[in-house]
Design a protein that fits this description.
This protein is mainly β. It has one helix and 18 strands.
């Protein structure tokens, strides 16, 4: 026969559990608020990062990715960091011209919201990609999947001065051809000089050859690109360009395009000729310029 005291205790436990279960069911029915506070329990988070490419074509110097940094910040002021490199698991492909997907699993404290921010940095510690997301507070045992699309902040530019001539014809037929010597090439973006190259070994760039200026860190968006060529000619002030021209380009992240424009002769007798230029691959802009003149 069951002890009378034990029977009473068992009955009270059943009643208490039933009451608690009923309260939990009612709370679930009537509450639409996110959970608050913290219990130390954990939730699973999978962060899937699509790292967009920095498009390039026939370019030797490329942006090389060095690491992905994931920062988790909670509503309770917790901060956690994960760093993904070429040597970790999962790993990061350092080649920036190839899009890739990196997935990182992490457990986080339940019952609080989390902001997740991801940045990629290259070997110069420049931020190339950035994106973020916020996940709401979850109960212990829940799993969240966060998808981030990281587009490149930069495009890579390449200015090609094609087949520099060694002379130029005056607009006046009776005038002889003038010797053309180019000793300085300049690439500007939004009025700022990003590449300024003098002839090496010098003193002038070799005629009949293609000469290239490259710049890897042009911010995406609408940009004004300018190309200039300098050199001495008679009384001409060498601080002023012989050729100059500009165009506006809407630089997209990893988007290819081709834009053509003319670089005009601004040397002695302004307007005697022009330089035809082509900007190609907006992920990486190629400026192909042919100077008027003869070889």
């Amino acid at each position: 026969m069951m002890n009378t005291s034990l029977s009473k205790i068992t009955t009270r436990m059943k009643a208490t559990l039933t009451g608690l279960l009923g309260a939990a069911v009612l709370a679930g029915c009537f509450s639409s608020e996110a959970p608050v506070g913290g219990t130390g329990d954990e939730v699973a988070v999978r962060v899937r990062m699509g790292v967009g490419s920095v498009t390039a074509l026939n370019k030797g110097a490329l942006i090389k990715l060095n690491k992905l940094i994931i920062v988790y910040s909670s509503s309770a002021n917790d901060t956690i960091r994960d760093t993904i490199t070429t040597a970790t698991s999962p790993s990061l492909d350092s080649v920036s011209t190839t899009g890739q997907t990196v997935t990182k699993n992490r457990t986080l404290t339940a019952l609080r919201t989390w902001k997740i921010k991801v940045t990629s940095r290259d070997r110069l510690d420049t931020v190339i990609h950035v994106d973020s997301a916020t996940i709401p507070a979850m109960y212990a045992g829940d799993t969240a999947v966060v998808n981030l699309n990281l587009s490149s902040r930069f495009a890579m530019y390449e200015a090609r001065f094609l087949t520099l001539p060694d002379s130029i014809q005056s607009s006046v037929p009776s005038q002889p051809k003038q010797i053309l010597r180019i000793n300085r090439l300049v690439l500007k973006v939004d009025g700022v000089t990003v590449r300024d190259s003098t002839a090496s070994p010098g003193p002038y760039f070799t005629a009949g050859q293609t000469h290239t200026l490259a710049y890897d860190y042009v911010l995406t968006g609408s940009r004004t690109v300018q190309m200039l060529a300098y050199g001495p000619m008679n009384y001409w002030d060498v601080a002023s360009p012989l050729y100059t021209g500009s165009t506006s380009v809407n630089v997209g992240a990893g988007v290819d395009d081709t834009v053509s424009f003319n670089l005009s002769w601004t040397g002695p007798t302004t307007g005697v000729g022009r330089l035809n230029a082509t900007l190609g691959r907006v992920g990486k802009v190629i400026i192909n310029g042919t100077l008027p003149g003869t070889l």
